[in-house]
Amino acid sequence: MSIYFFRISTGRYSGAADQPYEFEDRVAAWTEMTEVCANLLGGIARSLKPNAEWCMELLDENKKPVFRVSLVGETIGCKAS
C-alpha cells in the first residue's frame, strides 16, 4: 500500500490535505482521484470564470505530484470585456 495526498488549486489558492490516503497501487489511486473529480466538477464548472483554472493533484508520500486533473476556462479569439 502506498500513501497519497490530494491537493486542490484554484487561482492563487492551493492546499494539500493533511490526511493521507492509502491505495494498493497507482491504478487504484488514479481510479479514486477520477471518481472524486467526477463528483466535484459539475459544481466547479458552473462557477468557473473565464481564464480561470481548477486543478486536483494526487501527491505521493513526499508530496510530489503523481497525477493531475485540470479544468481550464479559456477566452479564445476575442478580447475579454
From TrEMBL:
<dbReference type="InterPro" id="IPR054189">
    <property type="entry name" value="DUF6894"/>
</dbReference>
<feature type="domain" description="DUF6894">
    <location>
        <begin position="4"/>
        <end position="71"/>
    </location>
</feature>
<dbReference type="Pfam" id="PF21834">
    <property type="entry name" value="DUF6894"/>
</dbReference>
<protein>
    <recommendedName>
        <fullName>DUF6894 domain-containing protein</fullName>
    </recommendedName>
</protein>
